[in-house]
Amino acid sequence: MKILAFAGTSNKNSINKTFVTSTSKYYKEADDSVELLDLNHFEMPIYSYDKEVELGIPQLAHDFAAKMDAADFLLISLAEHNGSYTSAYKNIVDWVSRIPNRKTFNGKPVFLLATSPGPMGGSTVLNAAVNRITWDGADILDSFSLPEFHKNFEEGKGITNPTLRSQLEAKVRKTKRALAEKLTVQG
């Protein structure tokens, strides 16, 4: 199985990058591959219709879409800026959505994550995404919010709070079962 994982942020030291990287290890088995993307490698002009008419759709939008299309499963951890998506993530989604004859996520199964330093754990952006990206062609298998990242996560150990770790692991098992079923039906 090909897994594409990324944090919805351009912050080089993002806790969401740390979180999605840690969570992706639950999915790596013998025949699986995990590709971790950095949104900084897909920086494009801020989307506007005028820019689209003038410049066309940037190659980087096509490249990002191709990465998603080549994956069997998307693991996304969304950073929250002022209660919403980061501009880096939103801009990529805006550009990819303009590629003719496609939905942004093209039916890919997705496990959505979010974390933040505060007690809400990025739940505002996570709830917005759960309610929105199905319209963009995502098949959301589940979602998970990790509150108080610095209190509940340790580099090299992952989630240190036993209850939260158990909740994440249950969702990982659930998404693995759903993925196995989907791949059996497809293949």
From TrEMBL:
<dbReference type="Pfam" id="PF03358">
    <property type="entry name" value="FMN_red"/>
</dbReference>
<feature type="domain" description="NADPH-dependent FMN reductase-like">
    <location>
        <begin position="1"/>
        <end position="148"/>
    </location>
</feature>
<dbReference type="InterPro" id="IPR029039">
    <property type="entry name" value="Flavoprotein-like_sf"/>
</dbReference>
<protein>
    <submittedName>
        <fullName>NAD(P)H-dependent oxidoreductase</fullName>
    </submittedName>
</protein>
<dbReference type="InterPro" id="IPR050712">
    <property type="entry name" value="NAD(P)H-dep_reductase"/>
</dbReference>
<dbReference type="InterPro" id="IPR005025">
    <property type="entry name" value="FMN_Rdtase-like_dom"/>
</dbReference>
